[in-house]
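= Protein in question =
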Amino acid sequence: MTRQEILSELKKVISPYTTNKEMLEGIDDNTDLIRDLKINSANLVDIIIDAEAKYDIEIDYDSADKMVNVGNCIDVISEKLGQKQ
């Protein structure tokens, strides 16, 4: 799965948790989930749970801790998908 494919799917996962839909459309690797998309920490946990279900992966605590911006989310998802193969 390419970074672009993961980004596209990640937008769908994040969408219910942000009110900043305009910013969501233009997200890139540097987009901060809390600062830019105004997602609260409780919803970050929901996003991680949704990503686990979407990609059939397990995201451990250390990996979840890294998921503060879109690029890091993609990196973690890519890494976990790679471990499945």
